[in-house]
Amino acid sequence: MVAVIDYHMGNTRSVVKTLKAIGYDAILTNSPDELRSASHLILPGVGAFKDGMDNLHALGLPPLLDELVVKGGRPLLAICIGLQLLADEGMEHGGPHKGLGWIPGRVERFSVDEGKYKIPHVGWNNITVTRDNQLFQWIHSPSTDFYFVHSYHLKAVHSEHVIATCDYGETFTAAVQKDNIMATQFHPEKSQRNGVQVLRNFLEIS
Amino acid sequence: MFSYCKNCVMPNTKPDLHFDESGICDACRSAELKEQINWEDREKEFRVVIDKYRCLDGSRYDCIIPVSGGKDSTYQTYVAKKIYGLNPLCVCFAPTYPTELGKKNLRNLHHSLGVDVVEFFKNERVYKTMGLEGFRRVGDHEWPNHLGIFTTPIHFAVNFRIPLLIWGENSQLEYGGPAMARQKPVLDRRWLEEFGGLLGNRTDDMIGVNGITPEDLKPYTYPTDERLAEVGVTGVFLGYFFKWDARKQLEIIKQHGFSVKENGPIEGTYTNYENLDDGLVSIHDYMKYVKFGFGRATDHACLDIRNKRLSRNEGMELVRKHDGKLSYEIVEKFCSFYEISKREFFSIVDSFTNKAIFMCDDDGNVIRDVEGQLIKRPECLIQEITTE
Amino acid sequence: MLKTRVIPCLLLKDNRLIKTIQFGEYRNIGSYIAAVKVFNARDVDELVFLDMSASLEGRDPLYHLISDVARECFMPLAVGGGVQTLDHIARLLGVGADKVVLNTSALDHPEFITQGAGRYGAQCIVVSIDVKKTDRGYEVYRDHGKNPTGLDPITWAKEAESRGAGEIFLTSIDQDGMMKGYDIGLTKSVAEAVSIPVIASGGAGDLNHFVEVIRDGRADAVAAASIFQYTQYTPQDIKQHLIKSGIPARL
User: Fold this and answer.
1) Chain C 214-233, CB below 8 Å of chain B: which residues?
2) Which residue among C28, C38, C236 places its CB closest to the CB of B200?
3) A160 in catalytic set
4) 3-state DSSP: chain A helix, strand, coil percent, rounded to 5?
5) Where are the alpha helices (DSSP H) in chain C?
6) A189 has catalytic annotation
7) Which of C43, C121, C197 shows the shortest C-beta gap to A10?
8) What is the tens place of the pLDDT at every residue in B190-242?
9) pLDDT digits over A87-142, tens only?
10) Pairwise CA distance, residues A67 & B383, whole Å
11) Nearest to residue A168, comparing CAs of A107, A81, A115, A110?
12) Is residue A139 within 8 Å of A194, Cβ to Cβ?
């Protein structure tokens, strides 16, 4: 059973709906019991960094997730703002704000010519897989487009955590992995076939 | 807001049907217009058209008539052959689920009326795949049929070099549509895209579905503009030149061997002379009912009211009794034909059911009565017109 | 490289899928569920779904309906029509919408843009601007093209951006449904005035119109409706044409 973590950040229902449509048993929850009994955890989210962290803390989730994921080895897939919250800190809206600190790095705004590259970065963009990994199995050129919608991205300290990049005026982190912790800046639940494949790949990991 | 025409019994949910300030639908207005048209002049126009295309040395057919074995195309054939002495090639795109009665009426064309008929048997695997996908995607398993009945005759026109096609009624005139389309004599590609019942789905959209290739879709692909221009293909509506009256026409063709259903009306309506050729077309009509709140009985009652055979109240009673009734026997046939479960069938039906018209439970699921029929919301039920 | 999005736009009135011409002449064109399913099967980049009745009648969005639509969408869905409060946004996102489109409510209360962006992120907030050409130049219209606002689109777009909007959905009322091409001048002037993405809407009738509005009009994405209803062109045809013309698109 897959638990999609409900911390009141945006379009969580899309994730649940997509998982169910591809045949997985998924629930939206923040109940400790339900999170504990899940085989896989998904941290979705659309919104701002500080709100995301505030909401996680208000629900008492960071210690629980630390127990299940960091120490317990439960597979976790974080999406969009979810990826960003894994960082040490985020610079959005009067940051720095402290993140979960699981993937060393800082979340910063795109540093590009905004006359040429409009922010937010919205739409379909192709990724480059930089490290072989299970998440991107069966995803290959020329169809490596995924749906992005964000103004900030993660600058990871260790390049070995970065498993895919994307280009938009600058090359930025599209996906990360550290052992059982995986994350994508794009929205697999909104990325049609490619996205469904990424979700399936994640759920095949035990 | 849901309302019904004050003259006939059509609701305002019907696509492309406009109601004027008096609450009368434009199909009824068109019917009034039909009385004002100079049909003698129109008949003269028809003679001009057919004389232009008639092959004087008899070396080829004068025209193509798309047929199904149904009453309309039988009438078209009768008019072309028996009244105007044309030598048509009748082209039939075989129906989804041919009935014995349909086959009999098709045979009647080449037996009694004495015309040449081509019956096009399409690749059944491809057709069925598109039918099921049409049902899932646009709520209409007859989707490939709407396409095939238009494109196949055109292919014959182009390949046999027979430029003139004679279609039947202009459905925009009979059933309602935008003003420009109602008075159009010609059926062209844009007509097909806009009014042909394709519901936004296009031929190319089927590529890849269950292995369908572009080659498989050749019969369903409209020829290029160049090919059409080369042959000078043009399609006209007989209903533009002659006042269309289905019942009158039926009596004529019955004299020429056309048979109707003897043991009661067709499912979903009170008539026994339509939809005879295809055993599953009532599901197509039912899907119209779930999407828009009106079915075949409404269509027929409206025609009869406009042709002054029924009063509105009589039409209302027939609609209340027959409209939108789902035959579970046909559901079995359908599910068996397409190899889907009844569960999937109803899940698809429910996904297209308009919940503003039909009752649902608190969770937003559609509910059915003890006979398994949908229940219209009270504000969507047809009422008598009370004069104040 | 970011691909230019081709976005079908569906308009709802009285629970019916409709098409308009110059924001008038409503044509009921059929089942909105069928339309959504077709676009989903076509793997479109994104879908915009606007409920005209909600805004004109000042009532709440139809959450059940949007939920049914979202159930059929595996691509981003932007929903508009009657979105006036943070609760509306929350509930729409809750039933499966990914973005909300604000029009009248943003004009009446520009601070609502900031509130929405602040709570749900700028990427959720699309501000829709409808524009008519008058003798005084381009003017923003409200209430589905019925009433002038006295605002010029560039000024309003810049204000929407400064208030926190993530994207602008720019519609030319004059070109709507005419299938004669987008308003290139209007699109360019707004696209160059803001640094948030601008989606051009209103006027697409053939494949070249899309190239023109992207290349000359500087549109970041294109929306269309009539072309899918009345011609044989599919979103794939459009994107293939864009690629042939040197504009990146996702196939």
Assistant:
1) 228-232
2) C38
3) no
4) 30, 30, 40
5) 32-41, 52-57, 63-71, 86-95, 104-108, 111-120, 153-163, 184-193, 207-215, 226-230, 235-244
6) yes
7) C121
8) 666 666 667 778 888 898 898 999 999 999 988 888 888 899 898 888 988 99
9) 999 998 777 999 999 999 999 999 998 888 998 999 999 999 999 889 999 887 77
10) 65
11) A110
12) yes
Task: Report how far residue C50's alpha carbon sits from residue B24's, in angstroms, rounded to the nearest whole number.
Answer: 28
What are the tokens at B303?
Answer: 């025609």
Q: Which amino acid is at A113?
A: D
Report chain A residues whose CB lies below 8 A from the CB of C193.
none
Look up residue B220 and give its DSSP letter.
G
**φ, ψ (nearest 5 deg) of residue C34:** -60, -45
- For residue B241 the two structure tokens come to 């030149």
**A:C CB pairs within 8 Å:** 105
Contact at CB, A122 and C97, closer than 8 angstroms: no
Smallest CA-to-CA distance from C54 within C94, C100, C98 is with C100
Which amino acid does the sequence have at B129? T
Chain B positions in Cβ-Cβ contact with residue C31 (cut-off 8 Å): 138-139, 199, 291-292, 352, 354
Q: Give the pair of three-digit tokens for residue B280.
A: 């599953």
**Rg of chain B over all Cα atoms, to the nearest angstrom:** 21
Torsion angle defined by CA atoms of residues B106, B107, B112 and B116, in that order, rounded to the nearest 10 degrees: 80
Q: What is the residue whose two structure tokens read 């919205």?
A: A122
Q: For C28, which residue in chain B has the nearest alpha carbon?
A: B15
Q: Kindly name the residue from A108, A121, A161, A189 that is annotated as catalytic.
A: A189
Nearest to C122 among A120, A125, A187 (CB): A120
Asked whether the CA dihedral C25, C27, C33, C38 is positive or negative, the reply is negative
What is chain B's mean pLDDT, rounded?
88
B35 or B287, which is more confident?
B287
- For chain B, the first-to-last Cα distance in angstroms comes to 21
Torsion of CA C10, C15, C20, C24, to 10 degrees: -150
CA angle A102–A103–A106, rounded 5-degree value: 115
Comparing C-alpha atoms, which of B40, B43, B20, B44 is closest to residue B32?
A: B20
Locus of tokens 């009738």: C205
Structure tokens at C210: 């899309």
Dihedral over Cα of B183, B187, B162, B95: its sign: negative
User: Is A166 marked active-site?
Assistant: no
Beta strand spans in B279-372 (E): none
**What is the tens place of the pLDDT at every residue in B30-40?**
888 888 889 99
Tell me the one-letter amino acid at C175: Q
Query: Which ipTM did the prediction report?
Result: 0.90
What six digits make up the tokens of C71? 């159930």
Residues in chain C with CB shorter than 8 Å from the CB of A46 are 93, 98, 120-121, 123-124
What the block records as the tokens of B26 is 């434009």
Q: Of the candidates C184, C229, C191, which has an alpha carbon nearest to the alpha carbon of residue C210?
A: C184
Partner-chain residue, chosen from C1, C95, C197, that has the shortest CB–CB distance to A118: C197
Q: Which residues of C touch A11 (CB under 8 A)?
A: 93, 96-98
Average pLDDT over residues B281-285: 92
Distance of CA B348 to the CA centre of its chain: 22
